[in-house]
């Protein structure tokens, strides 16, 4: 049976400009991974979601520079904006349609020639060309990338590896009595292994509900991301040797021994420089696009929804 640890006898553990993303989502994008000197989060234009609608209608009457947006389009757009309430989803859908219309109008105003690539629609091509022409993106230089690396050394390590054996005592998560009995049995097995660690394979074959019992409970080499989260969080904090307390997961209780622990190694800057530059450049690009959208909003006559825009005029 599957135990959620993902163990096998072969190894494995428990359990140019960047591509254009959906521009409507960029307005509220958060850039938590970026250092403050690279990009500050753009003010959230949806901080106070508000659609302006009368009590006689289900959907707002939206217009952008006197161009009317069909309320039915808002209803159709809802499927792309899951939210905690229909009102919130309707706000996100309406905002996306307003921004799409703003971009369409700006493309028309500038008379941009359309060059559609093989993997995009005409609308996507027009938006890409508009962003390329009107959004100025600062370049992340070498000094900026090295500063980010030095400030985030802990992020640039190879993943640790563990060689692990376990015995799974299966218990349904909703069965409190079975969970209690499973823990008692797991603690008894831990005590037996304290007395004689050489019995691990025998006890695994007798008691484990994981297919790894055929290999004495061995899960092979485990790296982060291979286990169910609640098991992994505890597992990677453990030193080598028999774990003196059972570990609980959604599948039950695990009796664990860590046969070997190989710590991660610091990656040199030269190895990660390319990925750092790409990450920072993407964040700077997203910030620039979000600020551009706010400028469009600030310059437009928008009816039916309140969005925060920037006061600075568009560059002609």
Task: Provide the succession of SSEs.
Answer: HEEHHHHEHHEHEEEHE
> What percent strand?
5-15%
How is the main sheet built?
Answer: 5 strands, antiparallel
List low-confidence stretches: 8-49, 52-57, 312-316
Helix vs. strand class: alpha+beta
Rg value: 28 Å
Q: Could you give the count of β-strands? A: 8
- CATH architecture identity of the largest domain: Orthogonal Bundle
Mean pLDDT reading: 81
Percentage of residues assigned to helices = 25-40%
**Shape descriptor:** elongated
End-to-end gap: 65 Å
The first-level CATH class of the largest domain is given as Mainly Alpha
Q: What is the fold named in CATH at topology level of the largest domain?
A: Triger factor/SurA peptide-binding fold
Count, helices: 9
Our count of domains comes out at: 2
Task: Please describe what this structure looks like.
This protein has nine helices and eight strands. It has 316 residues and is an alpha+beta fold. The chain folds into two domains: 45-151 and 272-303, Orthogonal Bundle (Triger factor/SurA peptide-binding fold); 161-262, Chitinase A, domain 3, CATH 3.10.50. The longest helix is centred in the last third of the chain and has 31 residues, at 269-299.
